[in-house]
C-alpha cells in the first residue's frame, strides 16, 4: 500500500493483478486498484476532477482527465473517507500510475490539488 497526505487529505492505494487476455490480437494485462480518500482536515471538501498519468513499460504515457471518480463527486466532512475501486489495462506486465484530484474546500471556497502517489502495477510473474 502507498499513502500520501496533501493539505489534510490522505490518499491510500492498494493494487492487484487481475489477469491477462487477448483482444485485437494483442495481449493485455489487467490491473485493479482501490483508493481511499480520507479527510483529516478540519474543513469539508469535495472532489471535483481527477487527472492520471499511466506509465506502461511498452507504451507512451497516457494522460486521462475526467469529472469525479467512477461517476461520483464525493463530499467528505472532517474524519470521513470515500473508497472506490477501478482498473486499467496495460500492454506489458509492468507499469505505474500517479495523478491528482482537484478538490474544493467548502469553508474557504478555494480549489486545491491533492497528490495521488505513484503506485506500481506489476504482474506477479514479472517480479524477479
Structure description:
- The protein is 0% helix and 69% strand.
- With 128 residues, the protein is mainly beta.
- Strands 4, 5, 6, 8 and 9 form a 5-stranded antiparallel sheet that branches. Strands 1-2-3-7 form a 4-stranded antiparallel sheet, with no helix packed on it.
- Strand 2 (9-23) and strand 3 form a beta hairpin.
- The chain has strands at 2-6, 9-23, 26-39, 45-56, 62-67, 75-76, 81-90, 94-105, 111-122.
- The chain is built from no helices and 9 strands.
- Residues 3-128 form the ApaG domain.
- This is Co2+/Mg2+ efflux protein ApaG.
- It comes from Leptobacterium flavescens.
- InterPro entries: ApaG_domain, ApaG_sf.
Anisotropy-based shape: elongated
Q: Could you estimate the helical fraction of the residues in percent? A: under 10%
Second CATH tier, the architecture: Sandwich
CATH topology: Immunoglobulin-like
Q: CATH first level: which class?
A: Mainly Beta
Count of discrete structural domains: 1
N/C terminus separation: 20 Å
Treating each run of at least 4 consecutive H or I residues as one helix, how many helices?
Answer: 0
Give a short account of the largest sheet: 5 strands, antiparallel
Averaged pLDDT, please?
A: 95
Unreliable runs, pLDDT <50, ≥5 residues? none
Please identify the structural class as seen in this structure.
Answer: mainly beta
Look at the structure and name the CATH superfamily: ApaG domain
Based on CA atoms alone, the radius of gyration comes out at 16 Å
The count of DSSP E runs of length 2 or more, i.e. the number of strands, is 9
Instruction: Return the string of H and E elements.
Output: EEEEEEEEE
Beta-strand content bin? over 45%
